[in-house]
Amino acid sequence: MLGEPQAVDPEVARTLSRDEVQRSRSFRYERDRRRYVQRRTILRMILGQYLSAPAATIRFSYGPNGKPALDVEDDAGLRFSLASSGEVALYAVTRARRVGVDVEALRPLIDLAGLIARFCTPREASHMAGLAAEERERAAFAVWTRKEAYVKALGEGLSLAPNQVDVSPGADLGAWTIETMVPLPGYVGAVAAEGDDWRVRRLEWAPSRTVPA
To answer: Which letter, b or e, does each residue of 64-91 get, where b requires 16 or more Cβ atoms within 10 Å of its Cβ?
Structure first.
């Protein structure tokens, strides 16, 4: 859980790359800028622990659709994904397999039927139509996060339309597995990764660990 973003500590800001600093300056609201710096700094610290490297030395490269990856020769096959919504951020880290993660804060959806029609496959829409009204909204968020996690893992970005991705129960995902999770009450998330021989190991970030060593 990110918590209320505080003023950016200069020592923390120095761990970011030039492009990350420029990106942080593009936010209109200070709160959003602080959140961006906070989650990018934590990402660097997490990856630094896996690589036994200072957070400031972590370098990223970006695929054609913006998917980030470690830009190091000896990355031990490390792959990662990051998503945030409200006060929650999810980080997924794997070795030798692509991974994607997504999270959404549950909230009222004004045009639920319209969203389902635009973003869901016929099979997904049929599955949700059979749910009770109070369950349908949560199911829509679960489907959306599963789609987002899968598309992020593939690195396809906006080039793959959501209604072309079927993540309904029993859907054929080939060599991929997607798991839905509840990181905190009021949120729903999903992680997608290659293969079926993995499991989620959940770790919580200590809020006091805000400055890299």
So the answer is: eeebeebebeebeebbbbbbbbbebbbb
Could you list the beta-strand ranges (E) of the chain: 60-62, 68-70, 78-85, 88-95, 99-105, 176-181, 187-194
Tell me which DSSP letter residue 6 carries: P
Please enumerate in sequence order all residues whose Cβ is within 8 A of that of 77, keeping only pairs 6 or more positions apart, or say none: 95, 96
- Residue 19 and residue 89 in one domain: yes
Domain end residue (candidates: 71, 98, 125): 98
Task: Judge if 64 and 136 occupy the same domain.
Answer: no
CA distance 55 to 211: 9
Q: Tell me the per-residue pLDDT of 137-167, one tens digit each, with 9 for 90 and over.
A: 999 999 999 999 999 999 877 677 888 889 9
- Lookup result for tokens 């622990």: 49
Model pTM score: 0.87
Instruction: Tell me, rounded to whole angstroms, the distance of Cα 59 from its chain centroid.
Output: 19
Among 193, 175, 201, residue whose Cα is nearest residue 97 = 193
Q: 86-128 pLDDT, tens per residue?
A: 889 999 999 989 999 999 999 998 899 999 999 999 999 998 9
CA distance 26 to 10: 18
| CB of 187 closer than 8 Å to CB of 134 | no
Task: Please report, in angstroms and rounded to a whole number, the separation of the first and last CA atoms in the chain.
Answer: 21
Helix (H, G, I), strand (E, B) or coil at 1: coil
